[in-house]
């Protein structure tokens, strides 16, 4: 029994020495080291289990090591997950990007991490693109703006970045991003996010195209009354995707839509008004008046693990 205890003690000592060495060499980020250090009470659990099991089972010391390691990892993962669900307000960043009045098209590209996002029409058209990010001290929004001389179009890129690699536990949490868009310039909007709730209210905006790629979270999109300057009636105007979440699409009564659904074999039926839409072979929702409608939009909806809901505001 003494040999088994000595072996276990040696393994623990070597593990601690390797951890401290890697830390001294700068190979373990501050946040990860902080998370590991918080698990030190697991050594007490290990010692207790070794005394209880080591005397009764041939591999008692090894079992104690495995159980203690699993317990520490589980507690660390639980703490990290709970913190990740909390809204952070430690850092605030204003977004103000002025625009020229003679732009032919504005491409807005936004990429976020664990952040709740809202797009909407600005109340001050002269302000250009404005907004605000509120989140952790570890996160911020980088802004890049370029104008193409050839056609006088512009591209605005907003990207959420994490400055410290693996974050400290105290700084882990969700952020919020609000983006206000102008109503006097045609818009091509592309959004991608890792996690969070997303509300894209395009009502009142001169939207040309819209693409959404969300890994985890619910997405709500409100389309505007379309009057596209560049897109053709037979052209698909974008793809709205949430890999793990529900998608709700509001389509104005003045707009007839043809929606190609990709449900990934989930078997979850879409929700829609059968008096407004036909459900066609090939997983397609098509407005009943599409053949006589003045405005037709086409989108592809990709929702492999959630429910697709299509609503027309004001319909009974």
Would you give an account of this structure?
By secondary structure, the chain is α/β, with parallel strands linked by helices. It folds into two domains: 2-84, no CATH class; 91-311. The protein has helices at 2-24, 30-37, 41-54, 60-84, and strands at 91-97, 106-121, 129-135, 139-148, 153-162, 175-181, 187-195, 198-201, 207-214, 219-222, 236-242, 247-250, 256-262, 277-280, 284-287, 296-302, 308-311. The protein has a 17-stranded mixed beta sheet that branches. It is globular, with a radius of gyration of 26 Å.
Considering the chains and any ligands shown, give keywords for the structure.
316 residues; alpha/beta; 17-stranded mixed beta sheet; 17 strands; 38% strand
- What is the H/E order? HHHHEEEEEEEEEEEEEEEEE
- Mean residue pLDDT: 83
The overall strand count is 17
Number of helices: 4
Rg over CA atoms: 26 Å
Structural class: alpha/beta
Largest sheet: 17 strands, mixed
* Gap between N and C termini: 77 Å
**Rough outline:** globular
From the structure provided, what is the oligomeric state, counting identical versus distinct chains? single chain
Number of domains: 2
Helix content: 10-25%
Give the low-pLDDT segments.
none
Strand residue content: 35-45%
Short summary:
The protein has helices at 2-24, 30-37, 41-54, 60-84; strands spanning 91-97, 106-121, 129-135, 139-148, 153-162, 175-181, 187-195, 198-201, 207-214, 219-222, 236-242, 247-250, 256-262, 277-280, 284-287, 296-302, 308-311. By secondary structure, it is α/β, with parallel strands linked by helices.
């Amino acid at each position: 029994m003494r040999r088994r205890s000595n072996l276990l003690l040696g393994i623990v000592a070597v593990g601690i020495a390797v951890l401290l060495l890697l830390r001294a060499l700068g190979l373990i980020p501050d946040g990860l080291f902080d998370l590991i250090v918080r698990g030190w009470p697991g050594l007490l659990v290990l010692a207790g289990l070794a005394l209880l099991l080591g005397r009764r089972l041939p591999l008692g010391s090894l079992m104690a090591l495995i159980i203690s390691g699993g317990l520490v990892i589980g507690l660390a993962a639980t703490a990290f997950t709970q913190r990740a669900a909390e809204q952070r307000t430690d850092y605030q960043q204003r977004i103000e990007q002025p625009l020229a009045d003679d732009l032919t098209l504005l491409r807005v590209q936004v990429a976020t991490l664990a952040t709740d996002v809202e797009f909407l029409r600005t109340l001050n058209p002269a302000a250009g693109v404005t907004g605000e990010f509120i989140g952790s001290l570890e996160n911020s929004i980088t802004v890049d703006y370029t104008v193409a001389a050839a056609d006088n179009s512009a591209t605005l890129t907003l990207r959420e970045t994490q400055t410290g690699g693996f974050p400290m536990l105290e700084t882990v949490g969700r952020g919020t991003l609000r983006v206000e868009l102008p109503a006097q310039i045609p818009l091509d909007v592309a959004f991608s996010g890792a996690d969070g709730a997303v509300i894209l209210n395009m009502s009142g905006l001169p939207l040309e195209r819209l693409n959404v790629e969300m890994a985890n979270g619910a997405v709500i999109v409100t389309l505007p009354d379309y009057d596209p300057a560049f897109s053709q009636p037979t052209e698909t105007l974008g793809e709205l995707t949430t890999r793990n979440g529900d998608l709700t699409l509001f389509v104005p009564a003045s707009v007839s839509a043809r929606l190609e659904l990709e449900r990934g074999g989930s078997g979850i039926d879409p929700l829609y008004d059968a008096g407004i839409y036909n459900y066609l072979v090939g997983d397609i929702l098509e407005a009943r008046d599409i053949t006589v409608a003045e405005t037709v939009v086409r989108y592809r909806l990709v929702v492999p693990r959630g429910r697709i809901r299509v609503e027309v505001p004001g319909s009974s």
